[in-house]
Every structure is written in structure tokens, then in C-alpha cells.
Write a structure and sequence with these properties.
heterodimer; A: alpha/beta; 5-stranded mixed β-sheet; B: about 140 residues; 5 strands; globular
């Protein structure tokens, strides 16, 4: 799993994931998300290149989202592929972290 | 019918899933159904490895795959203390609203689940119908 972090305007950070967010993938980025959770208040996670996710990956994302929210910040998941969106909606992740169909909408949400 | 042992280690789950996916792909199962199978197997195997309580004989986790172009049947074997993943109450989320998704996903993504146990050996059967309209 690859992770690319980029600072965008207005204090927004984009974390772009690529690959499978399975057990191994979640493990490989967990520490990075812990750091993001501790340091960012406006985070967009670009899921457009994520081909798979299951509960371990959800845990990584939700833990980060909760931590950011606890500090008054916002996190959004952007542009999930169809099968990833199916996992997100089935699990109810949307109750904890915003999901937006495009990166632009996700950025607008966390920056607002 | 093909069978593979799964080590009692999360690091083997990815390889086990790739093995099952390869069999399903060769049988002609469409990609969406294979992705659903991957979700089911990851949840079932991770649940056993993380939460399964080994009996004196160990966990002895293995999977069998039987696939046609229309249907995949995956059987997950273990010798843990029995846990009916098909019918057990869903665990509650923790105080932060996190967790409890594994069983929910397993049940939602399988067309059918069945669990049997004779007290020593357990079998979770995961069935997925490959037809596109059945997977909507």
C-alpha cells in the first residue's frame, strides 16, 4: 500500500492511498495515520486508487477520524471506488467520517 | 475442491486470500464476486486468528474452495472454541464508535453463511452467487 501526503491550500492535508487496504496494507500505513491524527485538523483521504478495503483498513481510518474530530478538526474520505464504497456504506463508516464522491467536495468539506 | 492450510498469523491471510481468488478467477467468477469473497475471507480468517481461542489441539485453520462460474463456496475450518460467525450477536462498537465491522461485513457480503461444529472441529461455509443481478 502506498501513501502520499501533500499539503493543500487553506490548511488542508491530502493523504492519497493506493493499493489494497487489507490487513497488510492497513498495517503498513497505520503508524502514518497515527501521526496524521495527532498533527492535522483538516485531512482528506483520497481513496480513488484504493482497490480493496476490509475491517482492518476501516479501523485505521476511523481511529484517525475520531482523533481529529476530538480536537475539533475534520476528516473526509474522497472518491472511493464502487466496491470500496460498498464496504464503507455497509459498515456505517459514514456515521463517523464524511464520505464525498470527489476530491474537490472532500476538500471543501474539511476546509469549511 | 482445493484446500489450503492457513497459519495462525495475520501475515498469512493475504496469501491465503490470493490463493482463493486465483481459483475463483480461473473458474470464471466475475471480479465483483471475487472482491466480495476477499472481504468475507479476510473477515473470517482475521476473526479466527485474532479472536479465536485455540483448543489444546491448536487452531488448525484451513480453507477449501469449490468454484464454478456461477457460484463460489468457501469453507473455513478450525479447531478453536466454537464461535458461530453466522448467528452470533454483533459486537458493539467501542466508546469511540469504532470496531465491530468484521462480522457485519462477512454477513452482508456473503450470499449465504452456515456454521457447524461438533465441538472439536468447526466449519464456516461462505457461499457467493456470481450472477451480477444477485450481487446488486
Amino acid at each position: 500500500m502506498q501513501l502520499n501526503i501533500e499539503d493543500l491550500p487553506d490548511g488542508v492535508t491530502k493523504a492519497a492511498l493506493a493499493g489494497r487496504m487489507d490487513i497488510d496494507g492497513a498495517n503498513s500505513v497505520d503508524l502514518h495515520f497515527n501521526v496524521l491524527a495527532g498533527s492535522k485538523r483538516a485531512l482528506v483521504v483520497d481513496l480513488s486508487e484504493v482497490s480493496f478495503i476490509a475491517s482492518m483498513g476501516l479501523r485505521t481510518l476511523m481511529t484517525c477520524a475520531r482523533a481529529i474530530a476530538s480536537k475539533g478538526g475534520k476528516m473526509a474520505l474522497a472518491a472511493p471506488q464502487e466496491n470500496v464504497l460498498k464496504v464503507l456504506t455497509t459498515s456505517g463508516v459514514g456515521e463517523i467520517v464524511a464520505i464525498r464522491p470527489t476530491l474537490t467536495e472532500a476538500v471543501a468539506y474539511v476546509a469549511g | 475442491m482445493q484446500r489450503r492450510t492457513v497459519q495462525d498469523d495475520l501475515s498469512d491471510v493475504g496469501a491465503a486470500i490470493a490463493w482463493a481468488d486465483d481459483l475463483a478467477r480461473k473458474a470464471g467468477i466475475p471480479e465483483q464476486a471475487r472482491l466480495d469473497l476477499q472481504v468475507c475471507l479476510e473477515e473470517a480468517l482475521a476473526n479466527l486468528i485474532i479472536h479465536g481461542r485455540a483448543s489444546g489441539a491448536g487452531k488448525n485453520v484451513a480453507i477449501e474452495i469449490d468454484a464454478t462460474a456461477e457460484r463460489i463456496e468457501a469453507r473455513v475450518f478450525d479447531t478453536c472454541v466454537p464461535f458461530d460467525a453466522a448467528r452470533a450477536p454483533l459486537p458493539s462498537r467501542d466508546a469511540h464508535g469504532i470496531g465491530g465491522n468484521g462480522l457485519k461485513l462477512l454477513r452482508a457480503f456473503a450470499t449465504r453463511l452456515a456454521y457447524e461444529s461438533d465441538g472439536d472441529r468447526n466449519i464456516l461455509t461462505i457461499v457467493l452467487d456470481a450472477a451480477i443481478d444477485a450481487r446488486a
